[in-house]
């Protein structure tokens, strides 16, 4: 896809050949996404396996290690940014209040949609395809109006809150393969802010509520989600209760714990506390997800990729889950913060006279960002 705003002079972020490589990778990943959609509609069993039992289980690890790579190649992001790349977008900027509302809607959408996997999406390929297509359509449409990544990738996307929680200590930043110039469309920019986490964007009550919900609530939500079996259909009120009760109860419990700890612990430990909750969430996910992938889960075939129960001992899977938990705790909570952002900030847009009229946003320290 063409982008007239990229410059290829010496000293700029990306050379022509590097940008071409990223464009090829973006196109391939987009085609993979389209292929999965095709299978979800016409060959649902294969599509469900590819999406829910291969792609989604890999995603949290990618977000922990290399959030920027995902931000560069996410098919929904590529779709959302097509209007901006081709200069069809009006380039409207969101106010802080509007962005905060979108962030809150994104978190609430995550908590609303994920439990429905047990009743609808885990068993229904066309429904999953309709969900993905709807999100792509919303992102694409909003891309005609709003500037760069502001409205979808850094606002409304239900995965973005998880990116901010898990991506606090990535391996290294990678070049920004979407934004040719920094327009300060989001302040602070999640892509270009070192050691990004949810509280850094807490400029208003909506963003602070979003941060509290995702940091404090996600570990308990994940725990509760894995204690609900897949049961197709939502025909009665009891079905809704069964699907939502444990995830929302777990969310409320761990959110209260986080709220208490954030009040009683010194402000300087705020970043470390966030890291521990992030490690708890992703560790909890793999603690239950890995066994279910290989036939050792709580609910028979729920989330099954390949049944290895008769081929390997149960202790080997449990050892793997212990190892992953220790890794995530080390990586997110004990490993020294390296001050890496997800992506390398591109050159600022030039104003009149050829000088940049934009400056990086100043980040406060009220939440203990690495202090």
Structure description:
By secondary structure, this protein is mostly helical. The chain has helices at residues 16-42, 44-73, 75-85, 96-113, 116-121, 125-143, 152-156, 160-166, 205-225, 237-264, 270-293, 314-334; strands at 174-175, 343-344. The protein is built from twelve helices and two strands, in the order ααααααααβααααβ. α11 (270-293) runs antiparallel to α12. It is globular and about 60 Å long.
Shape: globular
Beta-strand proportion: under 5%
Radius of gyration: 21 Å
Q: What is the mean pLDDT? A: 89
Roughly how many Å apart are the termini?
42 Å
Strand arrangement across the biggest beta sheet: 1-2
Largest sheet: 2 strands, parallel
Low-confidence stretches: 1-12, 360-371
How many helices? 12
List how many beta strands DSSP finds: 2
């Amino acid at each position: 896809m063409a982008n007239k705003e990229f410059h290829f002079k010496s000293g700029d972020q990306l050379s022509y050949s590097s940008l071409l490589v990223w464009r090829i990778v973006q196109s391939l990943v987009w085609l993979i996404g389209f292929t999965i959609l095709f299978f979800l509609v016409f060959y649902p069993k294969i599509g469900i396996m590819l999406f829910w039992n291969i792609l989604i289980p890999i995603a949290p690890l990618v977000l922990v290690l290399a959030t920027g790579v995902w931000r560069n190649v996410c098919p929904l992001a590529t779709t959302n940014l097509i209007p901006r790349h081709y200069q069809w977008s009006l380039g409207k900027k969101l106010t802080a209040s509007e962005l905060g509302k979108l962030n809150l809607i994104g978190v609430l959408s995550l908590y609303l949609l994920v439990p429905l996997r047990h009743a609808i999406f885990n068993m229904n390929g066309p429904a999953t395809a309709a969900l993905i297509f709807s999100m792509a359509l919303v992102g694409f449409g909003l891309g005609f109006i709003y500037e760069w990544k502001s409205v979808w990738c850094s606002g409304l996307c239900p995965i973005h809150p998880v990116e901010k929680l898990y991506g606090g200590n990535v391996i290294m930043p990678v070049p920004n393969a979407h934004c040719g110039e920094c327009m300060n469309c989001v302040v602070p920019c999640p892509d270009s802010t070192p050691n990004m986490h949810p509280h850094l964007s807490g400029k208003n009550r909506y963003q602070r509520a979003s941060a509290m919900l995702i940091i404090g609530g996600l570990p308990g939500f994940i725990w509760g989600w894995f204690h609900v079996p897949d049961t197709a259909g939502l025909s009665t009120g009891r079905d809704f209760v069964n699907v939502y009760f444990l995830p929302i109860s777990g969310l409320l419990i761990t959110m209260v714990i986080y709220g208490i700890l954030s009040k009683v612990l010194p402000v300087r430990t705020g970043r470390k506390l966030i890291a521990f909750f992030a490690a708890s969430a992703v560790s909890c996910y793999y603690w239950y997800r890995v066994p279910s992938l290989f036939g050792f889960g709580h609910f028979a075939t729920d989330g099954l990729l390949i049944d290895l129960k008769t081929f390997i001992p149960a202790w080997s899977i449990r050892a793997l889950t212990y190892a992953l938990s220790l890794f995530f705790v080390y990586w997110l909570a004990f490993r020294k913060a390296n001050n890496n952002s997800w992506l390398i900030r591109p050159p600022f847009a030039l104003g009149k006279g050829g000088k940049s009229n934009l400056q990086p946003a100043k980040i406060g320290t009220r939440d203990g960002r690495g202090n």
